[in-house]
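Project standup — Tuesday

K.O.: blocked on the structure for the chain from last sprint. Re-posting the sequence here as requested.
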Amino acid sequence: MSHTAHIPSHRKPRLSASKLAVRAGVAGGVLSTLAMAGTASASPSAEPVTDKTLEMPVLELDLAAEVSSAVTTAAENTRAAAVEGELNAQEESARTGAAAEAKQAKADAQQLANAEKKAKEEADRKAETERASRDADRTSLTSTSASGSTAGSASGSGSTAGKGSTPAKNSGKGSGATAPTTGSASAIVNFARAQVGKAYVLGGTGPYSFDCSGLVRAAFKQANISLPRLSQDQSMAGTPVSLSALQTGDILYWGAKGNAYHVAIYVGGGKFVGAQNSNTGIVERSLDYDRPTGAVRVL
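H.V.: unblocked you, prediction finished:
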């Protein structure tokens, strides 16, 4: 007997094939159970999961109609904008044109006003010149008349002292005027009109220039009528007549009767011929141009 026969062996006895199969089956069942438990614990809800399908809304669009409408709207907007722009341009043009017309009208009105003002100033200047000329003529004639009266008085005194006779009696009408029956108004008027355009010269008695009384005296001489030389005396000749009853050949005067500073000849038709002043010369004018103070009739 061996000395090791009484020592027990430490190796485990081998399992038989049947036992191994049983153990394998048990292990497999445990593992299967564990797997199912893990799956169940991993599920968030005990309720079964139901698959749901989301249905999207169906858009029923007519793209062709939408595009056509959008194009039409855009075209109408464009046309409206063009029309509005054209109207604005026309309105601006109208405003500009109206402003230009108003400016031109204002300029024309101002030019017309200036022209009228200038014409009025010119007329006033001429009238003032005529008045000044007549005043000068009146002063000169007054001085001449005074000198003539003094000389005449001296001559008359001398004649009376020398001859002892009385002064001759006037045979004509008015102051020293004679009025023969052969007087002709047409001869007076024709002569006066023939002098129109000639120069006015103070103291002139013709034939190329006259002053107012010189022209009247020369015209009446054509009818064989002798008038005084001065306008003051001529306004006293003949018979006074109204300006509303004038006849051709009447003598018109300006100023007081017997102290007139201007005379002219009435030629009919509401007109007179007179030697006005150095600016106008001898002219034929309407009575309204320079209304006379009075008139006398010698014929």
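K.O.: great, moving the ticket to review. DSSP finds five helices and eight strands in the chain. The first helix runs from residue 17 to 42.
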